[in-house]
Amino acid sequence: xxxxxxxxxxxxxxxxxxxxxxxxxxxxxxxxxxxxxxxxxxxxxxxxxxxxxxxxxxxxxxxxxxxxxxxxxxxxxxxxxxxxxxxxxxxxxxxxxxxxxxxxxxxxxxxxxxxxxxxxxxxxxxxxxxxxxxxxxxxxxxxxxxxxxxxxxxxxxxxxxxxxxxxxxxxxxxxxxxxxxxxxxxxxxxxxxxxxxxxxxxxxxxxxxxxxxxxxxxxxxxxxxxxxxxxxxxxxxxxxxxxxxxxxxxxxxxxxxxxxxxxxxxxxxxxxxxxxxxxxxxxxxxxxxxxxxxxxxxxxxxxxxxxxxxxxxxxxxxxxxxxxxxxxxxxxxxxxxxxxxxxxxxxxxxxxxxxxxxxxxxxxxx
Length: 366
Ligand SMILES: Cc1cc2nc3c(=O)[nH]c(=O)nc-3n(C[C@H](O)[C@H](O)[C@H](O)COP(=O)(O)OP(=O)(O)OC[C@H]3O[C@@H](n4cnc5c(N)ncnc54)[C@H](O)[C@@H]3O)c2cc1C
Prior knowledge:
The protein is α/β, with parallel strands linked by helices. The protein has 10 helices and 18 strands. The chain has helices at 12-23, 38-41, 53-69, 91-106, 116-122, 144-152, 195-198, 230-234, 271-284, 330-346; strands spanning 3-8, 28-32, 45-46, 84-88, 112-115, 132-136, 140-141, 159-163, 166-169, 174-177, 180-189, 205-214, 224-227, 241-248, 254-262, 293-303, 310-313, 320-324. The strands form 3 sheets. Strands 1, 2, 8, 9, 10, 11, 17 and 18 form an 8-stranded mixed β-sheet that branches. It is globular and about 65 Å long. The model has no long low-confidence stretch (mean pLDDT 95). It binds flavin-adenine dinucleotide (FAD). Flavin-adenine dinucleotide is lined by residues 8-14, 31-35, 37-39, 41-45, 165-166, 190-194, 198, 209, 211, 257-258, 299-302, 324, 326-332.
């Protein structure tokens, strides 16, 4: 019996879509080449971003859905209710934080401005002289590869899996793969950066990022600490950039990010850029100077030109659907992406307006 939907890609997006579709009673077949892709390389920070209304809508809906998953996640998913503190280094950044607070409040998301003494009490390891911080308590962190496996196992019998590399998407909802031809009622392309190789009109490109993890130490950081300059770096359109983002892991390790590089599709570690990242992190958290880094790696974020993912039906290929291009925010936004895909594919009422994410807005050859 052929599946209702064949999903290409079992990263966090493909896995979340498989779970949502199977949850609506569909038979889902997932095919994945088991490449160590973005989901395995990322930070797993679940955070609300508010640079534009579509990003805010997708991330805030996702956080609601993450809260539904949370009680069922197993320990290996490493859910941590760490919240985020957006660090304001000076008065200009404090003004940005206030603006962010107002935007979040308008969307019903609670946050709290911490003045300099309150910030120092909340996170004594931070450097002195900061203007303050915006605390968003609902943000969290997970170990995303484990969440992807957990999602794929939630509907036994309704989700099946083939480890294989897809080499071609046919127009009849079948694909050519290293395991032969696979057929379904519809195909959902959720192969992250690999989506562009299979569907060249998709404008998805790589933004390379490095992360460093320290050895285990007695806990000195309690929240995910993010520079307010982080989003400027995230949306920078060219050149190499660094913005500090420090995550306390349940193990006592600190995960330190991150960098952004354009035009690089390799995952080689770039030592000068990592040194730049670590210098910046040590300025923010001086105690890091005595910590030992035990691993450094790089991954590729699947990015689009307007910073929003492609979610919806391919406008020129009726039985092909797309869920890809989530850049540095795909772990956070996987649940609402999956909910949207499941609603659109099954004719249900989407919880969000799907228009801002429609693939046709960016397709070079619809
Ligand atoms: C350094 C870094 C830090 C990040 N930090 C965060 C963070 O803190 N919070 C957050 O929300 N997001 C973060 N991200 C972004 C997040 O990791 C990605 O947006 C997300 O993982 C994308 O998921 P995906 O399933 O679309 O793609 P991927 O995880 O890349 O998965 C794609 C899957 O498709 C498969 N595939 C590809 N081509 C083929 C093919 N031809 N045939 C079969 N299978 C194929 C691959 O094997 C892979 O399993 C970070 C990313 C990086 C690189």
